[in-house]
Amino acid sequence: MEYGWAYIIPVVAIAGGITYAIFNSYFKSKGRIAAAAPDLQAALEANTAASNAILERLDSIESRLGTVEKTLTDIP
Fold first, then answer.
1. Which residue range forms the structural domain that includes residue 21?
2. What is the CA radius of gyration of the chain?
3. What are phi and psi of 2, to 5 degrees?
4. Is the pTM of this model over 0.70?
5. Does residue 29 sit in the same domain as residue 43?
6. What is the count of structural domains for the chain?
7. In this predicted structure, what is the pLDDT of residue 58?
8. What single DSSP character describes residue 3?
9. Domain co-membership, 31 together with 65
């Protein structure tokens, strides 16, 4: 069994090929996501603006409810 190591070469080559294919598809998908990033960034900014507007509205409602609660508490 002097040449037992010769059987390992194809196994290592197959494992390397599979690993290369996995990394290649991973980085290609990252490239597609990066290409769509400007649209995604615009959508995220619009969503952030809408969320901030909702939070401001909720804060104003909360302050008005606090005023109403204080008024109801002050009534004897």
1. 1-35
2. 31
3. -70, -30
4. no
5. no
6. 2
7. 97
8. T
9. no
